[in-house]
Amino acid sequence: MTAVTTDPLGQALAERATLIQLCMYALDRARSAGVVERLAEGLSGIGVTLVRPDGDRFDPAIHEAGGTTPTDDPALDGIIAETELVGFSDRDRVLRPPIVTVYQYRRQ
């Protein structure tokens, strides 16, 4: 008879990852601001943060461009206008990059 070795830490980490994925799914579909806030607070309590980089400079290494919006202000060129789909990070590890709309300067 072979002894079954279980790894409680590995199992707990796998279950944590599954619950985080479920919360991300629920947050994406939540229509209530209160539900979104509660899910965000719960995730934050375990080290998972929502990434909404509105106003930051676009960086393709950490953001995904979903589109552009024109601007007549050259200072806004390359700045994130809005977050289309919130991103998530687990401490320093990116779980999902945010999908953003970026200002693009219209040359006169």
Automatic annotation (TrEMBL):
InterPro entries in the record: GrpE, GrpE_head
Pfam families from the UniProt entry: GrpE (PF01025)
Keywords: Chaperone
Any one Gene Ontology BP term: protein folding
Record flagged with keyword Membrane: no
Record GO terms (molecular function): adenyl-nucleotide exchange factor activity; protein homodimerization activity; protein-folding chaperone binding
Gene3D superfamilies per record: Head domain of nucleotide exchange factor GrpE
Identification of the protein by name: Nucleotide exchange factor GrpE
